[in-house]
What does this fold into?
Amino acid sequence: MFDKRLRQKLALQKEKGLYRNPPVVDDGDGRTVTVDGRTLVNFASNDYLGLGRCETLRKKASDAFSRYGTSSSSSRLVSGNASVIREAEKAYADYFGYEDAIFFPSGYQANLAILSTLFGPEETLLFDKHVHASTVKGMQLGTAPFKGFRHNSMGHLEKRLKSASGHPVVVTESLFSMDGDTPRLAELAELKKSHGFLTVVDEAHAYGALGTGGRGIAREVADVALGTFGKAMGLFGAFVLMPSLYREYLFNFASPLIYTTALPEAHAVTALAVLSEVERGDGRRERLSSLSRKLTRLLTDRGFTVCGEAHILAVQIGSEERAHDLVTKLFDQGYFAFTARFPTVPMGQAIIRLSLTANHTEKDLEDFSDALFRLSR
It folds into this structure.
């Protein structure tokens, strides 16, 4: 009976065009991936600055793991609270302009910790309806009531603020992972002055790639900010920036932190090297911005509706089946792209999500836009 139920649900996914069976990637260099012996131009990577394959970082990571070993072998609350991890956390807090920081094994885990632990029945969480799935899951696991507001609608948020029963906490992102757009941060700052709420901002897709020195774009409004190493920073894991009081509270009450093995010391050493690369990465950021503008122009000139204000672009398709068919054909033409379908996006609003990296060439963009135009006719 149990196996039958699983098979039925999988069959239904296939009928709806929502079945997921990703190809196995054999190799890659940041700009391309190899699948079944074929080299494809990769538009599905979040390695925005190209640091994931940076030779300097690879050497420093190798040296760090050789010196410190491969595992912390303990949670942070037992013997895993290594001095080098604290050094790196403080360096990140200083660089991004916060009192303190905590490293986590993943952004998903970090969002679970923040949203299920810091807030309780005395608060009301008001969240943008396009926030990441980990944010939603964190709220569901917590005890604070939560209500959504329309995506990037400061007017709707203000209505929610006026009717909130507990102390309001606004939860949003600085660069949305599927839409590629940003909230009206100046308007959000004005609302914050008027209503005095706390703000949690997921800057996972902005840190490293946007803002002065890659410091993101939401510091003016964010009391707590989440970043990931696994995107523009080319590593793995995540970090949360916050006041020292919040860090102390999480160390005492956050299950996703207390009951998990700490990241290894070598990770912290490599994270410090990453921070140096991010700080001097203006050239990479400028190139990424230029490539993003060019691809947007190429696609819109060919009649596509493209959303996105930075290095994440969402090409509007609509039908889940058509979107899947297009990325399959693009694969055959030598392009690795990702379709976001329900439940990642609302039903009937499927997109082809394009991620750019500073390692792409202008010819990559020109050839891709030509291919997509040809295949969509």
Q: What stands out?
A: The domain at 55-279 is CATH 3.40.640.10 (Aspartate Aminotransferase; domain 2). The two ends are 45 Å apart (CA to CA). The chain has a mean pLDDT of 95.
